[in-house]
């Protein structure tokens, strides 16, 4: 279909088997697989060391979309304050600090997108 593989493959689900499929689908020589999904803690990924060494492909992760906190967060904050960046609709839950474990349960259970934790609510 692609005549040799895709230049870029993204794994967004969080399954090791799909990371392997995405990596296998990349073009030899310069294909790049970007892992965005997160599987359960302790999950293992298995790739052939020969394939990794000889394929010329790249496998990388992009935690939080690759944001660089020191340089990017001030710019994103300014865009938010200037109403250029809409993020409020992604906050689906708010909890008190003493209920922080509830926030983690919601996130790990896939029941919320983002949760704001209030220190004094």
Automatic annotation (TrEMBL):
Classification via Pfam families: ADH_zinc_N
GO cellular component terms attached to this protein's record: cytosol
Molecular functions (GO terms): S-(hydroxymethyl)glutathione dehydrogenase [NAD(P)+] activity; zinc ion binding
Keywords (A to Z) from UniProt: Metal-binding, Zinc
Superkingdom, natural source: Eukaryota
Domain spans labelled Alcohol dehydrogenase-like C-terminal: 1-77
UniProt cross-references to Gene3D superfamilies, sorted A to Z: Medium-chain alcohol dehydrogenases, catalytic domain, NAD(P)-binding Rossmann-like Domain
GO biological process: formaldehyde catabolic process
Quaternary structure (record): Homodimer.
Family annotation (PANTHER family): ALCOHOL DEHYDROGENASE, ALCOHOL DEHYDROGENASE-LIKE 7
Protein name stated in the entry: Alcohol dehydrogenase-like C-terminal domain-containing protein
């Amino acid at each position: 279909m692609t005549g040799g593989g895709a230049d870029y493959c993204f794994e967004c689900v969080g399954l090791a088997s799909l990371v392997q499929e995405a990596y296998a689908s990349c073009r030899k020589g310069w294909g790049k697989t970007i892992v965005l999904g997160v599987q359960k803690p302790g999950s293992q990924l298995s790739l052939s060391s020969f394939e990794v060494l000889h394929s010329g492909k790249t496998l990388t992760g992009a935690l939080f979309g690759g944001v660089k906190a020191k340089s990017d967060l001030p710019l994103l904050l300014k865009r938010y304050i200037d109403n250029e960046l809409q993020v409020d609709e992604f906050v689906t839950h708010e909890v008190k600090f003493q209920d922080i474990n509830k926030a983690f349960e919601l996130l790990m259970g896939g029941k919320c997108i983002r949760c704001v934790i209030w220190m004094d609510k």
